[in-house]
Amino acid sequence: MPPLYGRPRDPQIDQAVLGATLAVLDESGYARLTIEEVARRAGTTKPAVYRRWPDRQRLALAALAARLGSARAPDTGCTLCDLNEGINVFIAAFRRIRPDVLGPLLADCAAEPGLRETFMTTLFEPPRAAVAEMIDRAVARRDLRADIDRDLVLDLLGSLVHYRALFGHAPVSGGQVEAAVEALLGGIATDYPALVEHSRQVTGDPRTHAAHG
């Protein structure tokens, strides 16, 4: 992802700065992130960093966006499989971010409306958009009802990733994701037992979703 501010002069410097930023965030959290330390680790200067990102908030967002941007949602043709695996992909990506990064970073962005919007768009829109694609494919396959409230479904599923990732108060297990997806699909699927059976066929495991079959 390109920097959130300005025009890059040297892609190698960009990558070095983003890598150094992630290293500091991983080691020390957001509170200890400084432009000076990032520049030192990247082997460049503070002005070179500031030419690309005007403050540490946007620098941190660019670095985290680069990390989350590598996460991709699956498309197997199995609605249960895709939603379970897809949500777990993004949970795993957010697990790579320390709990003392997202909360303090949001607080630091909150005072400036445009910056807060950038926070939400940069970090929470990618998983939301990926889940939206999975839901749209499921509706097109007629696995889900066409009259569902798409935004509400997105919020319900997205909360599994966003709420616990942001506050870090509890981990999310694969079993919890599966239970939440199945509870939701039980209400919005056109034929939920058929989805369960398809999932069993795709995975080749007769035990898959056995409690819900």
What does this entry look like structurally?
This protein has 213 residues and is mainly alpha-helical. It has two domains: 11-66, Arc Repressor Mutant, subunit A; 71-212, Orthogonal Bundle (Tetracycline Repressor, domain 2), CATH 1.10.357. 69% of the residues lie in helices and 0% in strands. The chain has helices at residues 11-28, 35-42, 46-52, 56-68, 79-95, 99-109, 113-123, 125-140, 150-167, 174-188, 192-203. Helix 4 runs parallel beside helix 7 and helix 8 (125-140) packs antiparallel against helix 9 (150-167). The longest helix is centred in the N-terminal third of the chain and has 18 residues, at 11-28. The radius of gyration is 20 Å and the shape is elongated. The termini are far apart.
List keywords for this structure.
213 residues, mainly alpha, Arc Repressor Mutant, subunit A, Tetracycline Repressor, domain 2, elongated
Summarize, please.
The chain has about 210 residues and is mainly α. The chain is built from 11 helices and no strands.
Mean pLDDT: 84
Helix segment tally: 11
CATH homologous superfamily caption of the largest domain: Tetracycline Repressor, domain 2
* Main CATH class of the largest domain: Mainly Alpha
Number of domains: 2
Amino- and carboxy-terminal Cα gap: 42 Å
Organism: Nonomuraea marmarensis
DNA-binding region: 34-53
Keywords: DNA-binding, Transcription, Transcription regulation
Domain HTH tetR-type: 11-71
Secondary structure elements and their pairing?
Layout: H1 11-28, H2 35-42, H3 46-52, H4 56-68, H5 79-95, H6 99-109, H7 113-123, H8 125-140, H9 150-167, H10 174-188, H11 192-203
